[in-house]
Specification:
21% strand; 5 helices; single chain; elongated; 219 residues; 28% helix; alpha+beta
């Protein structure tokens, strides 16, 4: 599996911008390009999932062993830290999994269903979870002290940091390799008015040599 890093995407885009000789009073920084990468990754993923496509595992990040704290106001346990913003879809949450330390899945449901859970015949004592604000709450926590969460997050470094990882531009970026070209095309076209194409490999050689084609639109 080919490794995609945030830095490789950012530097590719910056090199294309330099090659197009765009002049601007304010130079385009790595941080600006990074913000675009997160934004357009979220847009492309949401577009695919809302069309009914399956969730690609390359989108998903794990946040293991988030500690729980007691919320005396609601008399429920909740995550002690805010969960980073997820990419939310038309028919499903951006959180794809909540589980305990033993690997057992905890059902994630809407908060409005929680009051009815205690009246169900066979599952009234099950641990269930719901999202309120940026915290995950547990009903019937049964003494759990931590939970694990998987999700598709808007800003991947935020999720990595909460998971205790040291995130750099060389770290893995959760996007499938076949989406990277489209990501770059969208950023360059919509943010910088640059057309970016990857020509077909007409020679069909084993090296798959690729040459960037840049055309700055004339307004």
């Amino acid at each position: 599996m080919e490794f995609v890093s945030l830095g490789s995407i950012i530097y590719d885009i910056l090199n294309i911008i330099r090659g197009a000789e765009i002049t601007d009073d304010e130079p385009i920084t790595e941080k600006q390009v990074e913000a675009w990468v997160h934004q357009y990754r979220a847009l492309l993923i949401k577009r695919d999932i809302d069309k009914g496509k399956y969730i690609n595992p390359d989108y998903v990040q794990n946040i293991d062993s988030i500690s729980l704290e007691y919320d005396s106001t609601r008399q429920l346990y909740r995550t002690s830290s805010d969960i980073p913003e997820t990419i939310d879809f038309n028919r499903q949450s951006g959180i794809t999994y909540v589980g305990d330390v033993y690997g057992n899945r905890i059902q994630l449901m809407s908060e409005t269903r929680i009051p009815y859970q205690k009246h169900t015949r066979y599952t009234q004592d099950d641990t269930v979870a719901f999202l309120r604000g940026h915290r995950v709450y547990l009903s019937n926590s049964h003494g759990l002290s931590t939970v694990s969460i998987r999700g598709i997050f808007q800003v991947p470094p935020d999720a990595a940091i909460l998971a205790g990882e040291t995130y750099t531009y060389d770290s893995y970026y959760p996007i499938p390799i076949n989406m990277v070209t489209t990501l770059k095309q969208e950023i360059l076209k919509n943010e910088l008015n640059i057309e970016y194409q990857v020509p077909n490999d007409e020679i069909n050689n084993s090296d798959h040599e690729i040459e960037d084609v840049l055309q700055q639109r004339q307004e």
